[in-house]
Amino acid sequence: MKQLKDLSRGGESGISIDGVDVNNIVLVGMVSKIDNAVSDCTFRVDDGTGWVECTKWIHEPVDSAEVDAISVGMYVRVYGQLKSIQSRRTLHTFSIRPLTDFNEIVNHFAECIYVHLYNTKLRGGVTTQPQVTNSVVSNPIKGYQTNLSNQLSGQYNTDEQQILGVSSMVLNYLRRPACLASETGVRSDVVARELNISLDKIRTTLEYLSSEGLVYTTTDDHYKFTDA
C-alpha cells in the first residue's frame, strides 16, 4: 500500500510504480472501514504499510453479495483499476474475495518484494539476472514474470507448461468482444466447450489466472478478463 501512496506520474496510464506504468492491480489486506450506500460500497484495505480506499459499485445482486460477504477485520483480495482524481487515489473494484488461506498474505508480500526488486534492480539488462528461456504469462503490473520459481530456475515442469499453454488460449477467448461485453462474464464450462479442453483443466487454468490478477470472478463460476 505504501507504494500506492508514493505513486509518481507515469506514461499512458498516468500512474507509475518503480518506473512501470500500472492500471489494474491486486490488493491483499485487512478491511478497516466500510461505508455502505444504495449504489456503492466504499471500504478501506490496510496491509500494515498503509491503506487504500476502494469503491465497489452495486449494479447487480452478485455485487451486493460480494459486499455483504466482507466485514471490518476480515482479510480480502481485491481486484480493481486504480484511479487518480485531483490527487485522490481510489481503487475501482472489479471483485472482492475473502481470504480463507492466510498463506496468501505471506505470498502476496513476497511477490510485492520480488516485483519491487525486479523493477528497480534487475529490469534494464543487469547481467546477473537469471535467464528465462520460456515465455510466461505477464502480470497486469508489466515488467516482470509472474512465476518466481521459473524466474530462478528457467525450467518448467510438464504441468506448468500445460497451464501456461492453456492460459494463452483462455485469455484470448475472454478478450473476444462478446465476452468483454458480458457483465457477468463467461462460465468455465462454456470456455471448456468452446476451446475443446477438459473442464478440469480449464478450471485449474482459470484459478491460476485469477490468482495472478489476469481474470476475476463475477458470480459463481463466471469469469471476466481483468482489463475489460
From TrEMBL:
GO terms of biological process kind: DNA recombination; DNA repair; DNA replication
Keywords recorded for this protein, A-Z: DNA damage, DNA recombination, DNA repair, DNA replication, DNA-binding, Nucleus
Replication protein A C-terminal domain residues: 116-222
InterPro entries: NA-bd_OB-fold, NA-bd_OB_tRNA, RFA2-like, Rfa2/RPA32, RPA_C, WH-like_DNA-bd_sf, WH_DNA-bd_sf
Domain of life: Eukaryota
Pfam family, any one: RPA_C
Cellular component, GO annotation: nucleus
Record-annotated OB domain positions: 26-99
CDD domains membership: RPA2_DBD_D
Location(s) in or outside the cell: Nucleus
Record flagged with keyword Cytoplasm: no
GO molecular function, one term: DNA binding
Family named by the database record: Belongs to the replication factor A protein 2 family.
Xref: PANTHER family: REPLICATION PROTEIN A-RELATED, REPLICATION PROTEIN A2
Name recorded for this polypeptide: Replication protein A, subunit RPA32, putative isoform 2
Organism of this sequence: Theobroma cacao
